[in-house]
Amino acid sequence: MSRTQAGSSGAGTAHPDHLGHVIFIAAAAAMGGFLFGYDSSVINGAVEAIRDRYDVGSAVLAQVIAVALIGCAIGAATAGRIADRIGRIRCMQIAAVLFTVSAVGSALPFALWDLAMWRVIGGFAIGMASVIGPAYIAEVSPPAYRGRLGSFQQAAIVIGIAVSQLVNWGLLNAAGGDQRGELMGLEAWQVMLGVMVIPAVLYGLLSFAIPESPRFLISVGKRERAKKILEEVEGKDVDFDARVTEIEHAMHREEKSSFKDLLGGSFFFKPIVWIGIGLSVFQQFVGINVAFYYSSTLWQSVGVNPADSFFYSFTTSIINIIGTVIAMIFVDRVGRKPLALIGSVGMVVGLALEAWAFSFDLVDGKLPATQGWVALIAAHLFVLFFALSWGVVVWVFLGEMFPNRIRAAALGVAASAQWIANWAITASFPSLADWNLSGTYVIYTIFAALSIPFVLKFVKETKGKALEEMG
């Protein structure tokens, strides 16, 4: 499914009275991004309770946490085709149902195996939301506002992460600081996973209040309906017959890139594809998702009490929002490459300080005071520098760096590499932490350091270049 929509012929602006409507549509679609962030990080509050209730070791626990990422990869790979067949709105509604089912099932598991199954179903919904939200927003937004409205998705993801950690913290306190404490007839961790029903149902309801993508309607021959929706989002001062014809011509011109188009060079893929894969892998191998899936466990392992560990997970997610806003402000001003390099240097410092702090022996089950504060500040520093750089810049690069002819297929391969790398880090962390927590952070520090020469040598700046210039 293409994220582009043909666009000029007077369609560059929207009247203020239409803009409010367009913002509502984009915000409703971005609820999928909110659920993406919420569902992927809410598990942070349940990790230790799941370990205790089912009496499992780190390796098995890691698979239950990481298995959702398999669903993510499948959902992301299939969402485009589903949306092209049945429409963007129906695709959102399917995702909303899957989010809801996953939340209920995860809150009421019979055993570890069905908890893992519900996690996969939720992951499939995340994968769908990661594709359908940005694509739909791009297709309904007036060209003059497309960039800003497109940023709603990323903003919604980081807000979803923050809200999940805030809700987890509140529920833990309501349960007396015990993840397995009784709350509403269930254990606290079950309520944490079940609360996602609320935004999932809201997402489903909002999908009935927004229009189908004009691009999809044109693709299935519903020109009049498409013109009416274009009028709703772009105002009346446009020749809508010409506008529809323009979109039709653009759709006919687009080439469907295939996996075969990516082959070439001396190492299977074309070099530009490997660079995209490299960006995706480095983004994950610095260990960012440890901060969102395991931070409560991490802090508790060095002596922080559960309530404080949940609070620090929330403050980290607030720093993530701040960093994302900084990136959105500066990515077009400073450029993608300088921002990536600034972020890499900051991540090396933060991760190295964490590795140093975790190298000290615990005293009475806690890190020494100095090392504890260094670890806490360094963790926030790491998340800040990731969010203001690699968290946003990699997706911008992947959307811009590939030649038109292979863009869709190359982006699919790079995104798949990202999910696989995410899975590798998520599945390995508990066992690595049992082996040596400081050593684990040394590994993440090395990857952050290696990202600097990788960007300097292989990555070209894409700021200010037309997509047609990429070669």
From TrEMBL:
Report domain Major facilitator superfamily (MFS) profile positions: 25-463
Query: What are the protein's GO molecular function terms?
Result: transmembrane transporter activity
- Can you cite an annotated GO cellular component? plasma membrane
Give the top-rank taxon of the lineage listed in the UniProt record for this protein.
Answer: Bacteria
Matching CDD domains: MFS_XylE_like
Segments spanning the bilayer are 21-38, 58-79, 91-112, 118-137, 149-171, 191-210, 272-294, 310-331, 338-360, 372-398, 410-429, 441-459
Localization, per the record, is: Cell membrane
Question: Which Pfam families would you find in this protein's record?
Answer: Sugar_tr
Q: How does it sit in the membrane?
A: Multi-pass membrane protein
Recorded hits in InterPro entries, A to Z, give: MFS_dom, MFS_sugar_transport-like, MFS_trans_sf, Myo-inositol_Transporter, Sugar/inositol_transpt, Sugar_transporter_CS, XylE-like
- What broad class describes the main subcellular location of this protein? membrane
Keyword list, A-Z: Cell membrane, Membrane, Sugar transport, Transmembrane, Transmembrane helix, Transport
Its family remark reads: Belongs to the major facilitator superfamily. Sugar transporter (TC 2.A.1.1) family.
NCBIfam families registered for this protein in UniProt: SP (TIGR00879)
Q: What is this protein called?
A: Sugar porter family MFS transporter
Which organism's genome codes for this protein?
Streptomyces rubrogriseus
